[in-house]
Amino acid sequence: xxxxxxxxxxxxxxxxxxxxxxxxxxxxxxxxxxxxxxxxxxxxxxxxxxxxxxxxxxxxxxxxxxxxxxxxxxxxxxxxxxxxxxxxxxxxxxxxxxxxxxxxxxxxxxxxxxxxxxxxxxxxxxxxxxxxxxxxxxxxxxxxxxxxxxxxxxxxxxxxxxxxxxxxxxxxxxxxxxxxxxxxxxxxxxxxxxxxxxxxxxxxxxxxxxxxxxxxxxxxxxxxxxxxxxxxxxxxxxxxxxxxxxxxxxxxxxxxxxxxxxxxxxxxxxxxxxxxxxxxxxxxxxxxxxxxxxxxxxxxxxxxxxxxxxx
Length: 311
Prior knowledge:
Elements: E1 13-20, E2 30-38, E3 45-51, H1 61-64, H2 81-88, E4 92-95, H3 98-111, E5 120-122, H4 123-129, H5 137-143, H6 153-174, H7 181-185, H8 228-238, H9 246-259, H10 263-281, H11 289-304
Parallel strand pairs: 1-4, 4-5
Antiparallel strand pairs: 1-2, 2-3
Helix pairs in contact: 5-6, 8-9, 8-10, 10-11
């Protein structure tokens, strides 16, 4: 049944964090997944974490820090279905910049037979609904004084995202902004709001493809380049509305300088992000004048950050 009429305190949430081979859902695949649960009155708890065989050539190592050797013998997403089910059944999904991250989650679920959108919230836009500006996960946690976990990759991000969600839900509760999911999204036009009309996963929807498959957490030796993922997340957050403001350009410029990323890494991030923006605005296989204008502004913003595709 739809979650629209349910109380925000009547359900459990599962915060989804993942790493992928690239930015194009449907083509790129998940290489690491972590799920952290948030239940009313309880502290966030990590429920699942594993590196995953993407069943394609590995890419994006500079961002997620995983090499091909880290994935030798790793289970596929389908093989882990039976272990994912307990963390997903009956729960509302949450992700930071959900329009980006959950597209990969829904693509992977669709490959194993669950071809529908699940009810979910976007913590990046929950912050906007609470009167804040749109920020990446790392920056939002910094503002909230949430210490990032020592766990690397998706695991640390899931735990940080779960703590961030508890803060936002508490403010919604104290401010009496909404009692139900329907009240929370009423009058809002964020993309995730439409999903509240859907129902969570129910028992039996996820087939037990391989009950013997074992999740395998990321090796501690898988480090990657510190700061690359943070920069990419910040760029994606800034461009989530397919536009970029002067203040966002200034903020990203300072972040790039602070992280001291090599030019070739910055260029790779800009190219990947611009490719995603093209995919998003051209989803109907055509570009109208407004969409071309948005891409032009995004391209100009990336150029002002130091480099844009085609230069």
